[in-house]
Amino acid sequence: MTGRSYKYPFVYGQIDPALFPFAKWRECCREALSVRSVREWASDRVDHDDNELLEQLQTRVLPRREL
Question: Rounded CA gap, 37 and 43, in Å?
Answer without folding.
Answer: 10
